[in-house]
Amino acid sequence: MAKKPVYVSKQGGTINCYKGDTGWLFRVCCDHLSLYCNDLASAKVQLDRLEKFKRQSLKITVNAIRKEGLAFRKLIEASAAPYIEEQSYLKPINND
Predict the structure, then answer these.
(1) Is residue 95, in this structure, part of any structural domain at all?
(2) What is the C-alpha to C-alpha distance for residues 63 and 69, in angstroms, rounded to an integer?
(3) Which is the most buried residue in 3, 16, 19, 71, by most CB within 10 A?
């Protein structure tokens, strides 16, 4: 069993190599995703695909947060508006 990764990408994904009963087995890991391949070339291709998927899903997540964040802010502001107007008759006391 290998203790050090065979390959580490710039994005932090790794490929580890293990000796199995029938030959070498390559484990591809990227964040919480992992899979196994029979050779190093296919492991590298799969790592590139996982990292590309990670970048695409991050962009989708950020856009969804922005969109939902604006809707949530409008909802909070609309909900708070009656209470803000209710408190507007109170003026700060000047101790001059």
Answers:
(1) no
(2) 10
(3) 16
